[in-house]
Amino acid sequence: MRIVLLGAPGAGKGTQAKKISAKFGIPHISTGDILRNELKNSTGLGNKASEYMQAGKLVPDELIIEIIKHRLAEGNTGNPFLMDGFPRTLNQAIMFDNMLASMGISVEKVINIFVDKAELVKRLMGRRICHSCAGVCHIDLLQKGSENRCPICGGELYTRKDDAIKVIKERLRVYENQTKPLTDYYAKKGILYNIDGSGTENEITERLLQVL
Ligand code: AMP
């Protein structure tokens, strides 16, 4: 399986990618996670990316392409992959296609998870991440009095810096302008599948599995 997950921030790409990756044993490649890790370790790449990420802007294509080249070259990635948050610009999509073509492979399916804007804002503003298990949850589903405890492992929860309303608005604007046009690019190739990203996590997973 060589899959790309498309969708706005908050559409549920990361949550669904983890489930699909575990079910089928496909490597889950999240450029956002890779960048956050680089940032945490204060690497050169992390330092270069930091300013863009905190402002809700896209990190320059050259840096992202380098990440993907390295990740695909790693032994455990091999042929199958599940891309989450990449590609995000037309230029990245074209460079990715060329990179895969040179390996004699191509993207098989692009799944676009669509969710309306008000719901995206609500999800992002209430999103909490666990320091211990990296699980993602929504503040509305946490019990009163345990708002900072992970419901899965009891670890401490935190809010991503870019889940602040000002940055959310910029990320959604960037998505509309730079990433949404990718749906046309992949539709023309005949590999785009649109799925409704509203409802519960399991309902969305069911829709995804039907397409896969
Ligand atoms: P995400 O976790 O996918 O929402 O990504 C968090 C941030 O990382 C984005 O707002 C961008 O600043 C950066 N980022 C992640 N993936 C990409 C990409 N493919 N191209 C450019 N910037 C990216």
Characterize this entry briefly:
The protein contains 9 helices and 8 strands. The chain is α/β, with parallel strands linked by helices. A hairpin with a 5-residue loop joins strand 5 and strand 6.
Largest beta-sheet details: 5 strands, parallel
Strand order of the largest sheet: 2-3-1-4-8
State the helicity in percent bands. 40-55%
**Helix/strand/pairing class, anyone?**
alpha/beta
Number of helices: 9
Order of helices and strands: EHEHHHEHEHEEEHHEH
Task: Note poorly predicted spans.
Answer: none
Total strands: the figure is 8
What's the architecture of the domain at 2-115 and 175-201 in CATH terms?
3-Layer(aba) Sandwich
Percent in strands? 15-25%
Within the CATH hierarchy, at the fold level, what is the topology of the domain at 2-115 and 175-201?
Answer: Rossmann fold
CATH class of the domain at 2-115 and 175-201: Alpha Beta
Quaternary status? single chain
Average pLDDT works out at: 94
CATH superfamily of the domain at 2-115 and 175-201: P-loop containing nucleotide triphosphate hydrolases
Overall, the morphology is globular
| Computed CA radius of gyration, to the nearest angstrom | 17 Å
In angstroms, what separates the terminal alpha carbons? 9 Å
Structure description:
The structure is a single chain. The protein is α/β, with parallel strands linked by helices and 212 residues long. 48% of the residues lie in helices and 16% in strands. The protein is built from nine helices and eight strands. The protein has a five-stranded parallel β-sheet, with helices on both faces. The chain has a three-stranded antiparallel β-sheet with strand order 6-5-7. Strand 5 (127-130) and strand 6 (136-138) form a beta hairpin. The longest helix is centred in the last third of the chain and has 15 residues, at 165-179. It is globular, with a radius of gyration of 17 Å. The termini are close together. The mean pLDDT is 94.
